[in-house]
Amino acid sequence: MFTQLIITGISIGSLYALMALAMSIIYKTSHTPNFAQGEMAMISTFVAFALQTTYQFPLGIALLGALLFSLILGVVIEFCFLRRAKNPTIVDLIVMTIGIQLIIQGIAGWKWGAEQKDFPFLDLDSQLVHFGDVVISHLNILTIGTSLVLMLLLYLFFQHTRMGTAMRATQQNEVAAKINGIRVNRIKAFTWGISSFVGAVAGLFFAPISTLDPYLMWEPLIKGFAAAVLGGMTSLGGAVLGGYLLGIIENLFGAYISLEFKSTVAFVIIVLVLWFRPSGLFAKHYQRKV
Amino acid sequence: MSTAPLLKINNIETYYDLLLAVNGVSLSVESGKITAILGSNGAGKTTVLRTIMGLLDDQPNKGTIEFDGTRIDGKETEDIVRRGISYIPEGREVFPELTARENLLMGGFIRKNKNEVNSDLQKVYEYFPVLAEREKQLAGTLSGGQQQMLAIGRALLNRPRLLLMDEPSLGLSPLLVKEIFAIIRTINEAGVTIILVEQNANMALGIAHDGVIMENGRFVRSGTAAALLEDKDVQEFYLGGGESEDSVKGYQRWKRKKRWR
Question: In this predicted model, which residue has the larger pLDDT, A243 or A270?
Answer without folding.
Answer: A243
